[in-house]
Backbone:
């Protein structure tokens, strides 16, 4: 594995046997109840870990280092390959199931190298350090480029719209754009955890429009009582990863107040997207 720079890697269990225990023969819980309980536990643990990384990065960094040191013991692999210069969760943290990556590094068929690519050769890759990596196959995993709307161009009444200059409403809709949703997941948790909430909100929105005979829904940043102002941070602003920074001009921006600010907090998002009324001062409906 050739990497340009180190990444935090943590091992997580591949299976959660607590589900079988909680919904076992002598348990009063059904599997559905046990699943909901464990899902809540996992969400709270993950959110707690993220908040701890924000407020006590040195502590979380030390815990991750200790864990990796234990995993690599006896492998001969330098721990420096897993010690980034940034704080945990400044970029997404990589989780590996049941230590599979570390187990592979204990064997003879896997290794990790931290270096820059100079150029490709007929038999592999030449590195900036002068070292050559022999390779039969090279699987590239660099240069990710984010693309909004699958590359589609957006127009309203014949006028081109630059989403990169618009704010995101509840991280679901785009300021001033009618009847369009662009869903974004969490940058500090499972991406699909947020998508699940966002999809439920979209269903509520469609049901509300159907019930009242509305054909158009448009989020506006200005109401009779308040106004949201565009901030430099994008909808993915919590990440410092290169691919996010390169897409700053394409990604919708955050606002300075609710519901234009992206919190990346499951509990507050759950309330906002599942339980708060669909109709508010920011979202305007018409027939």
Residues:
């Amino acid at each position: 594995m050739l990497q340009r720079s180190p990444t935090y890697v943590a091992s997580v269990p591949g299976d959660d046997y607590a589900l079988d225990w909680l919904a076992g023969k002598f348990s009063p819980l059904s599997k559905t109840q046990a699943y909901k309980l464990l899902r809540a536990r996992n969400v709270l643990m993950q959110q707690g870990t993220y908040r701890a990384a924000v407020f006590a990065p040195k502590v979380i960094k030390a815990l991750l280092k200790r864990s990796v040191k234990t995993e690599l013991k006896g492998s001969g692999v330098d721990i420096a390959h897993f010690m980034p210069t940034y704080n945990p969760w400044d970029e997404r943290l990589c989780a590996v199931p049941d230590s599979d990556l570390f187990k592979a590094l204990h064997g003879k068929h896997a290794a990790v190298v931290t270096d820059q690519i100079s150029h490709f050769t007929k038999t592999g890759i030449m590195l900036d350090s002068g070292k050559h990596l022999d390779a039969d196959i090279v699987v590239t995993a660099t240069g990710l480029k984010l693309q909004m709307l699958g590359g589609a161009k957006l127009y309203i009444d014949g006028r081109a719209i630059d989403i990169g200059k618009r704010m995101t409403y509840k991280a679901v809709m785009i300021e001033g754009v009618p009847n369009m949703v662009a869903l974004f997941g969490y940058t500090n948790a499972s991406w699909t955890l947020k998508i699940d909430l966002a999809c439920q909100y979209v269903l509520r929105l469609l049901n509300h429009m159907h019930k009242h005979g509305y054909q158009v829904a448009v989020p506006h940043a200005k109401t009779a009582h308040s106004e949201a102002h565009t901030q430099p941070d994008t909808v993915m602003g919590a990440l410092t990863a290169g691919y996010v920074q390169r897409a700053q001009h394409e990604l919708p921006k955050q606002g300075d107040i609710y519901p234009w600010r992206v919190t990346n907090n499951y509990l507050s998002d759950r309330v906002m997207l599942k339980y708060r009324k669909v109709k508010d001062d920011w979202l305007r409906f018409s027939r």
Q: What stands out?
A: The helical segments are 18-22, 31-55, 57-72, 100-105, 191-212, 242-245, 266-275. The chain has two domains: 2-111, 148-286. The longest strand covers residues 117-121.
